[in-house]
Each structure stands twice: as C-alpha cells, then as structure tokens.
Amino acid sequence: MARYLVDTNALVFALENPGRLSAATRAIIEDGSLDVAGSAASLYEIGNKHRLGKIALSAETFWDGVRAMGIALTPVVDRVFVTASSLVWANRDPFDRIIAAQAIHDGAKLISSDAAFDGLGGIERVW
Predict the structure, then answer these.
(1) How far is 120 from 1, CA to CA, in rounded Å?
(2) Model confidence over 84-97: pLDDT tens digits?
C-alpha cells in the first residue's frame, strides 16, 4: 500500500478551503483506508507563520483540525534532519527541505501543490 505525506500547504487547503485541493488529492486525504500522514514540522511552520502575521491560522487550531481529519503528524527524527541538510536541491526553504527529507525517509509520496518538489530526486509529488 502506498504511503502519503501531506505537505503543510495541502493540509491548510484541506482545513480552510478544500476546493483548492485537486479531486485526486482530496480523495486520498479523505480515504480513511490509506496510509496518510502529515509532518510534525508543519506545526512549527504554521506557528511561525502565524507569529509573523503571515497567516491567521494558529498552530493549535491547525493541529486540532488535522487531528479532526484523522491525520496523524509523524515526528521528525534525527535522520530526517541529516537528509534535509544534505539534499542537493536549490530550494532553501527549511520547511520544504524537512518535509521532502521526511517523505524520502518514510518512503512516502508527497501530496503538495508546490512544483518545487518536482526537481528533487527521490520525491514523487501527487497533486
């Protein structure tokens, strides 16, 4: 069975504006029989953006919403940080790097609208 890791942007879309998700992505996220998870790094990403005034959604509200959807946030283990720091990839966004490394580490397809992941070997982006 395929594993899926949902990027922060797709989780925010699912919570705030599900119409922004593709039909295929929405079906995967809503299918309770599939192995779908988010990254615990998304909590910090959302909390940081909220603190900086970039988004209204708080980390607590985000976390509550993700759990209500039945999606677990998997921990970011030390090996993920090692992989993130060594990715040969022009993308400098630390959250994208961590989530990409987590998808690689977990052997998961990445659900994201961000085409920047397409240039990274070892990632299969679903949208």
Answers:
(1) 23
(2) 999 999 998 999 99
